[in-house]
């Protein structure tokens, strides 16, 4: 059995000291790797040794024979159901996801997959975490929450295309809706008047595609820490929908498989310096019970074309599955 470790935020953490599901530890002391599943299962792992270092070498064999929790026909039906819900005034945006599953090849370790992702699909919030209860390799481009003292920031992504020319007015509308939602979420734990949007719908280039990205910033109100911040904002707005509570309920009915770490939060917290960064768990693989899983999805609005949305989920998955197959 290999040792637990985390490689996130450009550092390698070793010497596992404790694992807990209590978010309050993130305001106590020490350096923590964090994985929160979309369903709300929390894994916080404290490490004794944290230093800038590359990922440790580990074997990897690419999986084959992926299956999907929803095929094209089922996904298209789901998109139509969301459009009906929009017509009925239940939601005005929802993010429909599906989970791909393949047998985990014998001897393949998540660190080996992480190294391939780092080479083939470098990402600003790349993370590999291998601790009891959470084995994750992520190439996430999206910041869910960062914190520096009392200043917190979220950078929701909404709108995806191969090139900037592919982005539609629907993508811009979707982004603005989610920015509004994130502002409201942060407003519940922020000092009154401190929530700002320094950047709206900026175009960002990532391997193989472009995204629209906005930045929402706030200052935490006195007495508010990580537990209150996460409770007010989780699951991330960009992977649920608006209004969030209605979207979450609708998606629970439409999606046949739990999302797990996909669409959850993955990252690090240094409780001593009161700093940290949690990514949205997209472009993320995780291993459990002998299986490797990967999630993909698309934001659905009234303007959505069901088959185009299916193709967006294929586009988002294609490059990552190709990297993992090597």
From TrEMBL:
Domain Chorismate-utilising enzyme C-terminal: 72-316
InterPro entries for this protein: ADC_synthase (IPR005801), Anth_synth_I-like (IPR019999), Chorismate_C (IPR015890)
Pfam families the UniProt entry points to: Chorismate_bind
Name the UniProt record assigns to this protein: Chorismate-binding protein
């Amino acid at each position: 059995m290999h040792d637990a470790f985390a490689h996130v935020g450009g550092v390698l953490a070793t010497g596992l000291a404790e694992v807990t599901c209590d978010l309050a530890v993130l305001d106590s002391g020490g350096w923590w790797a964090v994985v929160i599943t979309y369903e709300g299962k929390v894994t916080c792992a404290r490490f004794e040794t944290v230093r800038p270092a590359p990922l440790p070498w580990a074997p990897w064999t690419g999986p084959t024979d992926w299956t999907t929790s929803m095929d094209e026909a089922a996904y298209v039906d789901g998109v139509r159901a969301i459009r009906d819900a929009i017509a009925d005034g239940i939601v005005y945006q929802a993010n429909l996801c599906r989970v791909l599953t393949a047998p985990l090849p014998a001897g393949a370790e998540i660190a080996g997959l992480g190294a391939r992702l780092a080479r083939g699909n470098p990402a600003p919030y790349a993370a590999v975490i291998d601790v009891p209860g959470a084995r994750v390799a992520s190439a996430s481009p999206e910041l869910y929450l960062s914190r520096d003292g009392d200043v917190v920031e979220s950078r929701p992504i909404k709108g995806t295309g191969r090139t900037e020319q592919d982005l539609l007015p629907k993508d811009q509308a979707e982004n603005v809706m989610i920015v509004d939602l994130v502002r409201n979420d942060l407003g519940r734990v922020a000092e009154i008047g401190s929530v700002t949007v320094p950047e709206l719908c900026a175009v960002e280039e990532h391997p193989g595609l472009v995204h629209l990205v906005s930045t929402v910033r706030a200052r935490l109100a006195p007495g508010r820490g990580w537990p209150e911040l996460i409770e007010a904002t989780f699951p991330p707005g960009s992977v649920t929908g608006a209004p969030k509570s209605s979207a979450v309920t609708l998606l629970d009915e439409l999606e046949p498989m739990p999302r797990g770490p996909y669409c959850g939060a993955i990252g690090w917290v240094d409780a001593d310096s009161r700093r940290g960064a949690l990514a949205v768990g997209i472009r993320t693989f995780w291993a459990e019970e002998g299986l490797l899983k990967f999630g993909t999805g698309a934001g659905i609005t009234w303007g959505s074309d069901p088959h185009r949305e299916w193709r967006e989920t294929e586009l988002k998955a294609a490059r990552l599955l190709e990297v993992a197959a090597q």
